[in-house]
Amino acid sequence: MKTSSKDISASAIDGFRNQLRGELILPDSSQYHQVRQVYNAMIDKHPGMIAMCVDVSDIVNCVSFARENKLLLAVRGGGHNGGGLGICDDGLVIDLSGLKNVRVDTSNNTVRVAGGNLWGEVDHVTHSYGLAVPAGIISTTGVGGLTLGGGVGYLSRKYGLTIDNLLEADMVLADGSLVTVNKDQHADLYWAIRGGGGNFGIVSSFLFQAHKLKNVIAGPTLWPVEQTEEIMEWFHGFIHNAPEDLNGFIATMVIPGPPFPESLHEKKFCGIVWCYTGDPSGFDDLFKEVRDKKPLFEHVGEMPYPSLQTLFDGLLPAGLQLYWRGDFFNEIGPELLKAHHKFGSQIPSLLSQMHMYPLSGAASRVGNTDTAWAYRDAKYAGVIVGVDPDPGKAEEITEWCKAYWEALHPYSAGGSYSNFMMEEGQERVQASYKHNYQGLTEIKAKYDPENLFSVNQNIKPK
Fold first, then answer.
1. Nearest of 78, 110, 93 to residue 31 by alpha carbon
2. Do 166 and 196 form a contact (C-beta atoms < 8 A)?
3. Cβ atoms within 10 Å, residue 343
4. Please, what's the b/e burial string for 10-48 (b: 16 or more CB within 10 A of its CB; e: otherwise)?
5. pLDDT digits (tens, 9 = 90+) for 54-97
6. Which residues of 92-106 are buried (b: 16+ CB within 10 A; e: fewer)?
């Protein structure tokens, strides 16, 4: 049974505040309502305290205070989690946004990143060295949440998931201890955090393997939504047989406005956003098959990798209403094609969309039990997201998303990429870790037997 923050004495709270270098924000603070906001404006939670940590000692003191007082505890990095799992009602929020540092070691092309960094901050530093770490597709995403869930994005076919490039992490555990985890130290914990989310502790810093990459050839191609079935069927056969230098996610979407031409505005499309990391001289030959499909619109060209990573930041800022559901898929058969055409033609708002991210190439060469991520043999991580700035449209975009998902789910692999889930219940969590779930519950029991870290896609201790 969790204790209400209202039952903790003022003197205990003052003592806690004095242990922190960062600020402790309470509900009567003028900053409170601004600071409690997360990326998804559909989430409206009121924590009892928000600790703005600035160093590892702050994290340790917060964890100890929450454990000793039996407080509900949430951990927030970038705050992008769709289900709002970086915030909670009544309890303590550990906010890591004050922990920022990105340091490149050019002797081995590794990058040390603090737990509060955003991916755009990492890209800014690594790009100056001609390096990149595989991440997602929105640069304002927090490093911590994306990494611990797995990390799917433009570079997955070439360099694997983000977790495949995670060499080490410094973590604060539920007992307040600070440990370093890697293949030689706490190897079980190293296995678990590569896909198991924030269940096992708070990562204060990550060590990633970076890769030589400066520019990419990238951008979207669009076809009228009426061609969805044709383009998706072709894409499925094309992308998994293409060289790993080429990747792209396929989408049903609406063009909301600039920078696209006015003739495309507010029209529905089947689109693919491409990323090519190979020799530019070979691109046109490789891309000929795409152009033979006669896209209605193509805007593909050479750009710095961080420019691709920020391509959609302006369309998807913090503060929008957002509801999403995800699944893994092994095939794109006739039933799926029909459903994508149907629901892609019914998109209810300019920013709502569906994405399918290919998981072949380097991401698929890691075994299904080598990390906590259990779906290495899946062909796609899919996500449907209802998005709109108007709270009055929250129900409409949610119902569209759910109906779309329900039409696809019977043909799915059974579970979801955890970063594409709302709060969907324990059965969905178990399905998303499949054969790895039992091992994860045992590691959870070893490192967090009281389930202190429970505001997440929760793995319950055995």
1. 93
2. no
3. 22
4. eeebeebeeebebbbbeeeeeeeeebbebbbbbbebebb
5. 999 999 999 999 999 999 999 999 999 989 999 999 999 999 99
6. bbbbbbbbeebebee
Distances (CA, A) of 110 to 15, 106, 165, 206: 39, 7, 9, 10
- Identify which of 94, 8, 20 has the alpha carbon closest to the alpha carbon of residue 456: 94
Strand ranges (DSSP E) for 239-296? 246-254, 268-276
Show the tokens assigned to 302. Answer: 């050479």
Number of DSSP helices (H) and strands (E) in the chain, helices first: 14, 19
**Non-local CB neighbours of 107 within 8 Å, separated by 6+ positions:** none
Residues 6+ apart with CB under 8 A from 314: none
Structure tokens at 54: 């600035």
Tokens of 297: 């619109």
Query: Where residue 1 falls among pLDDT bands split at 50, 70, 90?
Result: confident
Q: What digits encode the pLDDT tens for the residues 319-342?
A: 999 999 999 999 999 999 999 999
In SS3 terms, 133-198 reads as: CCCCCCCCCEHHHHHHHCCCCCCHHHHCCHHHHEEEEEEECCCCCEEEECCCCCHHHHHHHCCCHH
In angstroms, the Cα distances linking 152 to 156, 187, 376 are 6, 23, 12
Helical H runs in 261-393? 283-291, 305-309, 334-344
**CA dist list (Å): 144 to 64, 117, 248, 274, 454:** 21, 8, 24, 25, 16
**What's the pTM?**
0.97
Residue 71 burial (CB count, 10 A): 24
| Residue pair 115/78 in contact by the 8 Å Cβ criterion | no
- Name residue 254's amino acid: V
Give φ, ψ of 23 to 5 degrees: -85, 140
- Beta-strand relationship, 268-276 and 246-254: antiparallel
